Amino acid sequence: MSDGWDGILDPGEKILWQGRPDGAFAFDWGAVFPLIFGLFFAGFALFWMVMASLAGGFFWMFGLLHFGVGVAIALGPVFWPTWRRRHTWYTLTDKRAFIATDIPFKGKKLDFYPINAGTVFSFYDEDLATIHFAEKITQTKKHGVSRTKIGFERIPDGRNVLRLMREVQDIDRQKSADPERDKT
Prior knowledge:
With 184 residues, the chain is of the alpha+beta class. The protein has helices at 32-54, 63-85, 158-177; strands at residues 15-19, 88-93, 96-103, 107-114, 122-124, 129-139, 145-155. α1 (32-54) packs antiparallel against α2 (63-85). The longest helix has 23 residues, at 32-54. The radius of gyration is 23 Å and the shape is elongated. The chain starts with 14 loop residues before the first strand and ends in a 7-residue tail after the last helix. Keywords: Membrane, Transmembrane, Transmembrane helix. This is Aspartate carbamoyltransferase catalytic subunit. The chain crosses the membrane at residues 29-51, 57-80.
């Protein structure tokens, strides 16, 4: 293969599907709390700047940082997922799922996740389907953890992709049941 997959795919590994998530804006209800908190934070900073400007001078400018942080807290969770999806590409092979991103100022990144008999899928069947097949666990402060589901998000041909993933699982199950099969 000379299409950029040299050195990435294993010998004999075949690409079954490639696609991209839908890049249209979609509101996630999980962003409501940060939106409200951020607007409250930015609103308080704006109020503080107005009141500080009445005293004269440039002291009010110290509120600009807080106002900017409030706006970022409010709008980041609303617009970031759409921005990320617009810079994301998906590939499914007969062994792995790849998620490639090329986000400005962060650079290119390629993550891959094995698809085998033990892979657990979560399938959200909508006009634009989402298939989760992995989970990222991040240590938070002290003893807490944060879990982030990973997968192909907002894809138009989700049922077909799920079918392909199940076929990959079935092949892995067959190989596990008959280890001699791999030697041929």
